[in-house]
């Protein structure tokens, strides 16, 4: 079954409503929150510095306006420090991640987006910062123990090794390239940002008014491919996404389990959390339970017969789709 079936699902939402209903007293736990870290590294030229500036400013604007992420939860590091910007040094980056780790809750989502250049020397893949760079393994260690769900989007050249290094349960890792030898400047970052803008209406594949991480990836991967085709050039990048924790990932054209989690990850608040309808609360609780079952099933895949895994996978996916449909119907009624 296509991962698109799950794009109506929403990850981790409604838990606080379900808890409040179950216990019937006291203040409910706070709803899940989204936090964002945007890192614009060493540009290398004025032209690329201008491009990175445009990408990060567009992304931050869409996050804080269209998606409703509070500006206080968005941290931006850039080549040049300025108003609301810290310099993208290794020291500042580690401090920012430590601060995020202290604030992040178990039901929260952290989006990390890297704009800039990458290198690979045959051993280590690096993202170019101001001063000493961080390798993919450095990033892995810095994210160790980060609560909640992490979405890590590495849009730079030579980003492929980050896929295996950062892959983990409850984590979505996106790279602009599928080989460490792809060392040319990439365009994936520009299109990933564009996916969240109103102009990119086609990025909303299921037309539910929200953009999941999978939808943003799919839009950016397809737009990057068309960028080279329209210019009659050989593509020097092919984006990959991993969210099963196996470090392998998939591209847009390849079928597989990768994408099932990303299709349920959104950055904007779930509209269902604003309803006081007890039936919607119960439906949200059921969907959350089913999504937990799906994650557990995927971890057991290697220990199950293929036909048994396929049957159980289809059952859960269909149940999630039906439950999400029922939630939408009640919200519209």
Strand order of the largest sheet: 3-2-1-4-8-9-10
Strand proportion, as a percent range, falls in 5-15%
Averaging pLDDT over every residue, what do you get? 87
Tally of individual domains: 2
What is the CATH architecture annotation of the largest domain?
3-Layer(aba) Sandwich
According to DSSP, the number of beta strands is 10
What would you call the quaternary organization?
single chain
Structural class: alpha/beta
Listing every helix as H and every strand as E from the N terminus to the C terminus, the arrangement reads HEHEEHEEEEHEHEHHEHH
Which outline best applies? globular
Distance between the termini: 29 Å
Radius of gyration of CA atoms, rounded to a whole number: 20 Å
Count of helix runs: 9
* Major sheet: 7 strands, mixed
Low-confidence stretches: 1-28
Share of helix, binned: 25-40%
CATH class of the largest domain: Alpha Beta
**CATH fold name of the largest domain, please?**
Rossmann fold
